[in-house]
């Protein structure tokens, strides 16, 4: 500590040395001049040493306190027991050490200092923190830094916030030619990763992946393809609809209609020829 009321001249150093040699024997200390003042550094304070000191001489009056600090060890973060769901859960973390006196606690997230807000609160001694109704951006690495004059210790904890699915989209061609391959790709933002299933014209299909493939498209493949994304932890589902149109040829129904028309034409022609021969 710096003693601003004790200028760094020889008499000040002499008086302090005499004091520590007698009244505070057992202290491991050093004195040095820093910017015109006397700086006192105490490396070790044995248990019998009193905390409060008074020093008076004809040149100065000095009063200061010494606090015995123990090295901090085994810092840990506790409190995260259940899975966190965005919009529903609260995050509670506590930081402690197995040994040592703690003078200061600092909380960080992804390397940035955490500050109180309308959602983030701390206890008076900063030993615990709380985030109300976590959001997906609250996920990350939380770090607690403990310190005292002689030591520091840190603890880290990775926090996962489950959310989604959201932003579900289907990528793929909307118009395809008959007999060409069709690939529809579904994606969603979700933690954990979303599961997928597909419906075609509101009828459930057997496809249970993020990709729907049609090897050779025909007219019967035209319609609405719905990707259904789900999250097993949040229990939420979200959908996206993709409309596909197949063209460039005749459908099975159209071909059947043409065949029927041709048969009717041939039948009519045949009947006409038969009637003409009969009249002759």
TrEMBL record:
Residues 70-162, 165-246 form the Ig-like domain. The keyword Signal applies. The chain crosses the membrane at residues 250-274. Pfam families: I-set (PF07679), Ig_2 (PF13895). Keywords: Disulfide bond, Glycoprotein, Immunoglobulin domain, Membrane, Signal, Transmembrane, Transmembrane helix. This is Ig-like domain-containing protein. It comes from Scleropages formosus (Asian bonytongue).
């Amino acid at each position: 500590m710096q003693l601003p009321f004790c200028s760094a001249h020889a008499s000040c150093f002499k008086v302090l040395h005499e004091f520590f040699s007698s009244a505070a024997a057992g202290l491991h200390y050093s004195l040095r001049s820093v910017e015109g003042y006397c700086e006192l550094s105490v490396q070790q304070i044995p248990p019998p040493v009193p905390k409060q000191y008074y020093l008076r001489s004809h040149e100065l009056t000095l009063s200061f306190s010494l606090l015995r600090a123990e090295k901090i060890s085994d810092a840990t973060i506790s409190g995260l027991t259940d899975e966190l769901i965005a919009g529903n859960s609260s995050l509670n973390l506590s930081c402690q050490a197995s040994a040592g006196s703690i003078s200061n606690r600092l909380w960080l997230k992804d390397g940035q200092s955490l500050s109180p807000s309308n959602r983030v609160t701390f206890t008076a001694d900063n030993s615990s923190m709380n985030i109300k109704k976590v959001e997906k951006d609250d996920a990350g690495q939380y770090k607690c830094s403990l310190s005292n004059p002689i030591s520091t210790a840190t603890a880290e904890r990775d926090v996962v916030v489950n959310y989604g699915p959201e932003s579900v989209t289907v990528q793929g061609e909307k118009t395809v030619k008959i007999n060409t391959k069709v690939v529809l790709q579904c994606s969603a933002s979700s933690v954990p990763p979303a599961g997928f299933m597909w419906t075609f014209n509101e009828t459930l299909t057997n496809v249970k992946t993020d990709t729907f493939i049609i090897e050779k498209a025909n007219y019967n493949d035209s319609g609405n393809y719905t990707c259904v994304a789900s999250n097993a932890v949040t229990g939420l589902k979200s959908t996206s609809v993709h409309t596909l149109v197949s063209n460039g040829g005749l459908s099975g129904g159209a071909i059947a209609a043409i065949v029927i028309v041709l048969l009717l034409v041939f039948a009519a022609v045949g009947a006409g020829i038969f009637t003409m021969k009969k009249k002759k």
